[in-house]
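Researcher: Let's run the pair from yesterday's discussion. Sequence first, then tokens, for each.
Model: Starting with the first of the pair.
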Amino acid sequence: MSPSALPQELIDEIIDAAEDDLQSLKAFGLVGKRWTQRTRKHLFHKIELVEISNHLLDPTTRCKQLVELLEANRELCKHTRTLIIQSSTVDPDAEEKDRNLGWLQVCFEDVIKVLQMLRRSVNSIALCQGKTAAMNFAHLSPPLREALQSFVARPNIIDLSLFGVHSMEMASLAQNHSMEKLLIAFSGPPRMEALQSNSCIRWQQQPTTTAGSLTSSKRSVPSKKFLETLAVCGGAHALHLLLCESQNAQATLDFSRIRRVTVGTMHWDGAMTVIWPYFLKVFCQDVLSYSISLGPWSTTSLDTLQDETTVHFDPVVFSFDQLPRLAYLNVEVPHFSLLLPQHTQIPHLLEGLETLASSPKPVPLRYLTLDFNFGSLSVVDDVTKALAEVSECRDIWGRLDEILSREIFSSLTKVIVRMLLFRRCKFDQSVEELDELKSTIKLLKRRGSSGRWKPPVVAQKRSRSVYLILAVPSWPKDGAIRIFNPGNAVVAQMAARIGGDLFDVPQFRQQ
């Protein structure tokens, strides 16, 4: 049967199945007119104007080509939903030897044209720092700066991400009518706005306003929009300025009904220590999901943590008792922090859960996920030793089980411990050897080996404990990512000793 004779519904399904395969989509677009429209929908769904070190064309040339393409066929613009702009910037007034302008500064006129053509279709935008420096709005030309500020303030923008963006006016974001997701990482407002944020911090160290009063006082505003998801890391002044502006009677973006919050522990400073307790108490009464992560682009290693005077997070992030509706809790821990008591999050996590357990009402927590991040490992041989360091900390697992076994956590259904090995593992076993290894694990579990420690939360049948070793040893040609591969029998026995069930990730996702 000729491709042109296929029903349109079948053609659409074929194209949709290859939405992440760029080469296949390009080929489908050449089959015929009935294939073109659906193919364009996926090809132009996301446009990335970014720095790519191994690309044949520099960002300036690619941007010019994009402008020519969109101007020649304006119909393509309607398919774009996500726009990502990544660029370093330098002070244009710097000395000649230090002045190597970023591509965003060089072809700002073309970027303005792209923004104008995509202003009606894009609902998600990310502004990101470049490979060598931050994206500083003070270094951009006034027309481009104004165009970007206007673009992110448009009413159809529902998702905004700011990675390493400096000197961007934040106050205007409080006037957004449609924002649902906001990410602020290593970004901050101009100096004058930061000074305003500092004075606001001192005023709000003793908050007199509650979330309920904030909400009731703003119900008169008809175009109110409640932010649903917030992620912040290293953006204290930007966050606090937005919180201050949101209390203005004219503000349209409301932070008082956030459902999902993620906070990065790296690059924590004194401003965040002051802001976060206030934020949890006033704006997080409806939060269902709370995640504590290291933060994006974290480069912290064991060597950089040796300085005991360096503060990388504050225990205030573990104030779970300030989240009365918390149902999903995720905590990411760098494995090496267990070796440095002054930097490990585990004691603060346990204290936070202990405080939560003292609540007079049942705790709604349903899922607890602990992610041990092994991303800093540089030697493959360290994997087994590093896993042992984590899995043999019985004082940690024992107290965790004692706390979670209490009746107040009756809603808890699953405890997930994940070892995030990423590509730091190398597995030489054949498929048959891995299958035999999995069978050995199941046999150990059935026999109840004395070397295996089974958490009480599993024994009580009230919740399940899931232990996952996640690693991506390679990218197979078939596109499948084989994630669960215990490297050797020692690692497998450690997984069995901790207890719980081990799953292949596809199987785990189905449950």
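Model: Moving on to the second of the pair.
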Amino acid sequence: MARIRKLTSLSLTCLIFSFISILPPSSSSDKHFQVLDVLASLHQAHQAFKTSSTFQSRAGSFSLPIHSRSSLPSNTDNNYTDLTLSRLARDEARVHSILSDFTPEQLETPLISGIRQGSGEYFARVGVGRPEKEFYMVIDSGSDVSWLQCLPCTDCYHQTDPIYNPSASSTYKTLTCTSQQCTSLEISACRTDTCLYQVSYGDGSYTVGNFATETLSFGSTGSVSGVAIGCGHHNEGLFAGAAGLLGLGGGALSLTSQIKATSFSYCLVNRDSTSSSTLEFNSVPPADSVLAPLIRNSLINTYYYLGLTGVNVGGQPVPMSSKLFEIGGDGRGGVIIDSGTAVTRFRSEVYNSVRDAFKSMAKNLPAAATGFSLFDTCYDLSSLTTVSVPTVSFRFAGEKTLSLRPSNYLIPVDKDGKFCFAFAPTSGSLSIIGNVQQQGTRVSYDLANKYIGFSPNKC
């Protein structure tokens, strides 16, 4: 009996140690590790195939509901692996367009954001015209010109809503060729004193049509008249059922500039969620926001740069020079924050250091046999319900730190429990903070005071 008890005690000891390897660490090391709920993440992934039907809006000066691409009625993906691959393919196309030939000459144009038309991941429900008609429109902080498909439509892609008919709106008005809005376009033409616009994107997609003013409505929170938008009669590209694009960039023709917004904010729900959050203009940022300097590149107005100085993994700074995040004298480099890019991209030397630091502290995680698409570091968590993972945080000027949730950097790529480290390298010097790392956090752009605020759990 004594021998049996000894063996049982030994087995129990082994079992306890196996649990310790995956359970959350003690409070003394909370800054080094946190718990990823594997089952909750996989359950959320299954929600990607359900359609959202209701929208909740938070009060603000102007407010619009926003929701993820997967909740649009036109979403046709029905396999999570295929869904992830299509997301990453769209993301690669967008990032490639942003990074390709990133020269000062191209940086000067306020029109070319580098977005691929198929890469929009978050959408707003926007009212257009009088009487008001609502449309799904991609929200894009990396574009300036807002536009939507219009009748008569010579060349249009499929969209969820009926195509906008300008002749049915009493507030639609074409712009003349000498108007300030028309002369602010980088690419324009004139026909019988009517301004024509063209926005070309990095992959060859484009929209062409009349440049006009129209009334835009923000749900029940108000409307603005005289907003310059593109009325596209020739549109090439896949837009996941959206009617067009809402440009939130920093240029003169962006929606934020035209309505003279002193600030705007959004909270992006989980990419697989059927719930919604809000896009708000001129609302007060949450008091607990972690603030980062908003930096402007003198050679380009569209993108929003922020003062990232480093990355912490496991509560410790990853050794690297802060100069790797700075804008060079030639306009290259720096760090932009982008609602349209999904996965955060770091220049390769930064990415390699961050990945290696994570891997060295995540030796308790069972490594997957292979990577997945653009991800080279993946784990097989199929047999686990929760797991302890190293913390990851962004460090800003003034030693302010934004801690990411585990679901912001370890994401499921299939329904079986394969999770990947959701960062990727770039071959250029520009880094991009993507929407996977922004999910679940209200991101506030204070244009007047020149800072970007991050407030977790304020959706």
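Researcher: Give me one sentence on the second I can quote.
Model: DSSP finds eight helices and 29 strands in the chain.
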